């Protein structure tokens, strides 16, 4: 390993706005809102404020799965939150999520509306509300929740750790990339060994654990995140590949990953979702053709 780092931390850290690299615009060391703006509210019980990142996709997949099962109470408006422009720091969004990160859900079927933030908490809230995708038997439920919490604790090493230093940091730091590549490969091996004996993460049934894990680890294995499949040799994880295809083939998953998506092929981007018909009429290719 090369040793080129001459940085010596000062006694007291101070914020240099320029040190944020490509995220300098949005990252800051304080919480709270930067401007007054209310959240928009549509006609459906569920109001989702999000973006089509892996954390956002978990929730749109869940809502689409619930609708596919006939739960009309899961009808939703999905509003786009442009985190690159600081929309997560509006007073309305901070009211829905004091942590200023997508996704945030407001359930307007309760009085007053219930706010839910943290993608894992949103999945659990919806699973309990509609009695779906979470086993009711105690041991099976615990296994599902163990994997859900595994994802919430592990994915920051994949995204904030590996992804950040491999793909986004303004300089390539060998030590950081080595450390997080090792950890991500270890996590993929955890999944691969488990999926060798289990069809889905929590056993024979598809659950919120799959919905949480698939958008992150499925994306890395499919080379849809950080362009790192070759670097990490993800083709080695055969059981993860099998599960990735199994989950990815679900129609609700295919719809969910289009919602609030602002990158990729225009026909795969549905910036906002207010009606089931929007998938047929409002994708970016159709929007552009109508202009
Ligand atoms: N633990 C949170 C993480 C959410 C998160 O990191 N969201 C990112 C996008 S994927 C975000 O909103 N970033 C904006 C920011 O950091 O200001 C969850 O699972 O909901």
Automatic annotation (TrEMBL):
The keyword Transferase applies. GO terms for molecular function: glutathione transferase activity. Residues 47-134 form the GST N-terminal domain. InterPro entries: Glutathione-S-Trfase_C-like, Glutathione-S-Trfase_C_sf, Glutathione_S-Trfase, Glutathione_S-Trfase_N, Thioredoxin-like_sf. Its EC number is 2.5.1.18. Residues 271-285 have a biased composition (Basic and acidic residues). Keywords: Transferase. Residues 137-270 form the GST C-terminal domain. The keyword rRNA processing does not apply. Residues 271-291 are annotated as: Disordered. Pfam families: GST_C_2, GST_N. This is Glutathione S-transferase.
């Amino acid at each position: 390993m090369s040793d080129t780092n001459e940085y010596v931390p000062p006694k007291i850290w101070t914020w240099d706005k320029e040190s944020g690299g490509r995220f300098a615009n949005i990252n800051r060391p304080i919480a709270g809102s930067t401007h007054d703006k209310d959240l928009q509210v549509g006609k459906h019980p569920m109001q989702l404020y999000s973006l089509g990142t892996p954390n956002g996709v978990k929730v749109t997949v869940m809502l689409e799965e619930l609708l596919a099962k006939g739960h009309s109470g899961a009808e939703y408006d999905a509003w786009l939150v442009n985190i690159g422009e600081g929309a997560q720091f509006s007073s309305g969004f901070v009211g829905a999520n004091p942590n200023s990160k997508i996704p945030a859900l407001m359930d307007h079927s309760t009085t007053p509306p219930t706010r839910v933030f943290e993608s894992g908490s949103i999945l659990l809230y919806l699973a309990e509300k509609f009695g779906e995708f979470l086993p009711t038997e105690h041991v099976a439920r615990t296994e599902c929740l163990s994997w859900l919490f595994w994802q919430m604790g592990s994915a920051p090493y994949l995204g904030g750790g590996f992804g950040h230093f491999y793909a986004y940091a303004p300089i390539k730091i060998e030590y950081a990339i080595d450390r997080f590549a090792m950890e991500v490969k270890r996590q993929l091996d955890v999944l691969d060994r488990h999926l060798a004996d289990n069809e889905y993460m929590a056993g024979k049934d598809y659950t919120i654990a799959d919905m949480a894990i698939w958008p992150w680890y499925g994306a890395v294995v499919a080379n849809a995140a950080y362009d790192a499949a070759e670097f990490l040799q993800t083709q080695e994880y055969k059981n993860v590949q099998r599960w990735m295809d199994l989950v990815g083939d679900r129609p609700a998953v295919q719809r969910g990953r289009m919602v609030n998506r602002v990158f990729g092929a225009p026909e795969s981007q549905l910036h906002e979702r207010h009606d089931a018909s929007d998938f047929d009429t409002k994708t970016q290719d159709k929007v552009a053709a109508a202009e």
